[in-house]
Amino acid sequence: MEVSHQEIDMALVVHKYGGTSVASAERIKSVARRIIATRRKGDDVVVVVSAMGDATDDLIKLACQVAEKPNAREMDVLLSTGEIVTSTLLAMALRAEGHEAISLSGAQAGIQTDANHSKARIVAINPHRIKEELHYGKIVIVAGFQGITPSNTQDSHAPSSTGMDITTLGRGGSDTTAVALAISLGARACERYTDTAGIYTADPRAVPEAVKLSEISYEEMLEMASYGSKVMHPRAIELGQIYNMPILVASSFNDAPGTLIHGGTMEVQQKVTAISHDMDVAKITIVGVPDHPGIAAGIFEPLAQAGISVDTIVQNASVQHITDLTFTITKGDAEKALNVVRPIAEMIGARECIADTNLGKVSIIGSGMQNTPGYAARMFSTLSVAGINIQLITTSEIRITVIIDETQTKRAVQVLHRAFELDKA
Ligand code: ADP
Ligand code: ASP
Ligand code: MG
Question: N or C: which terminal CB in the chain sees fewer CB atoms within 10 Å?
Answer without folding.
Answer: C
